[in-house]
């Protein structure tokens, strides 16, 4: 499954109402660590059909970033059943992200 870019208008239907757990990457295009995370997230998305991975550009979706207290990027928030269950800030290894996805 490919990583999907979403905006504030899609967040409820794609993330909160999802039947699958969702890992949300709050990022910005100018952020170096965010760019480092892209291939890792793409790899996880291609290997795991049980988890949806989406990206939210904080510059284009500032209200959404504020709603979830995103102060630094990348911030990754893992949602299950419409609720945030874990969060990580900063670039992470694939192994570190895999431990979040339980």
What tags apply to this protein structure?
alpha/beta; 102 residues; 27% strand; Glutaredoxin; 4 helices; five-stranded mixed β-sheet; globular
In short:
With 102 residues, this protein is α/β, with parallel strands linked by helices.
Model description:
With 102 residues, the chain is an alpha/beta fold. It has one domain: 3-Layer(aba) Sandwich (Glutaredoxin), CATH 3.40.30. The chain contains 4 helices and 5 strands. It has a 5-stranded mixed sheet with strand order 1-3-2-4-5, sandwiched between helices. The two termini are 18 Å apart. The mean pLDDT is 96.
Sketch the major β-sheet. 5 strands, mixed
Which architecture does the CATH hierarchy give at level 2?
3-Layer(aba) Sandwich
CATH class: Alpha Beta
The total count of strands amounts to 5
Low-pLDDT stretches are: none
End-to-end distance: 18 Å
What would you call the shape?
Answer: globular
Number of domains: 1
Structural class: alpha/beta
CATH topology: Glutaredoxin
